[in-house]
Every structure is written in C-alpha cells, then in structure tokens.
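Q: Got a minute? One more chain.
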Amino acid sequence: VVMAVGPTGVGKSSLLNALLCPTEYTEEDADCHFETGSGLNSVTRDIEWREGRWLGEEGVHNTTLVAYDTPGLGDTFGRDPGTLKQIAETIEAHERGHVNAFLFTVKAEERFDQRLQRQLRVLEYIFGPGIWDHFILTFTFYGFTRGEKKLRLKKCMKDMKSQFPDKEERRIFCSALDYEKEILSEWQEALSDFT
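A: Always. Here it is, folded:
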C-alpha cells in the first residue's frame, strides 16, 4: 500500500499509473487509472485509490499494489490544510491496509527548496519521525531519449564553462558525468541534513 504525496504538478498520478498499468497501455493512454493533466494546475482534488497488479502484469507478478493518489501540496487552490487532514484520516482509517510507503514525488531537476522542506516538516509533524522509515523519494520529468540526454549534455557544457574553460576537457567531463547519480546524491545529502 503506497501513497503518493508531493507538490502540485510533479506527476504523482502519472507515476501511479506507470506502477499499475502495462507499459503498452500507458504509452497509448497515460490515464489508465488516475486522471492526469499538464501544467501546474491541480487535477487531483480528493484522495483516490486504485488496486491492481504491480506494473499491471497479471499472472507474471503476484504482487497487488494499492495506490493512493493525493492532491498536490502547494495546491493551486490553497487547500493544503484540507488535503493534509484527508491524508491523515485516510491513513488512520487504513481501509485498504496500512500504508507501507509514502512516495514523495518531485521533479528530478528540482532543488530541495524551502517550499519542499515546509511540506516535509508538516508531514513529519502529522505522522511523527517514523515517517522516514516509510519514505521513498521518487523522481519524475526525467527522460532517457537521445534528445533528452543531449539536452543534459548541452546544459552541463554551459554550466561547467567556468570550471573547464577548455571545450574538449568540458566535453570529456560532461560525457562521463552520471547525471542520475549526481541528482540522487544531492537529494540524499539534502534529506540527510534535513532529517
């Protein structure tokens, strides 16, 4: 039993759809269970849940996943107090079982800013410090197409210009850089300091 929490517009509904739906279905229709939208406006207004097979692969995996989708914190309609109350009530009721994990969802290239820190402090206040034992950081909006990898290389080349004035040295550095590991390390360090 998992509950996706995090800011508005970071792809919580899309993440849960990806966990519950077969790949070929999500590629054709991203809204196989939860409604999604584009932009920063809230689509999810109330806590919703769906139950299904892990990755939608009935017969292959015997794992049943219960997924709760929540309205975004920092919601475009200013409904954080009501959302947090709904989350607390849903968890306390444990109608579908105890929540095993919170999927704190953020855009991969976002920074751990004050807004996110406040959201986590409120969650910790409501659920206690034990929340960190059930906390999974999930990243969205990070692609692996050739074009997306090329954009990351281009950004690195620009960002590292002062450290590596020689273009070839900069290209070697940026080509060898493990972007995913860098992002994860930054977040792990920030969360470690935070907790």
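A: The mean pLDDT is 85.
Q: Perfect, thanks.
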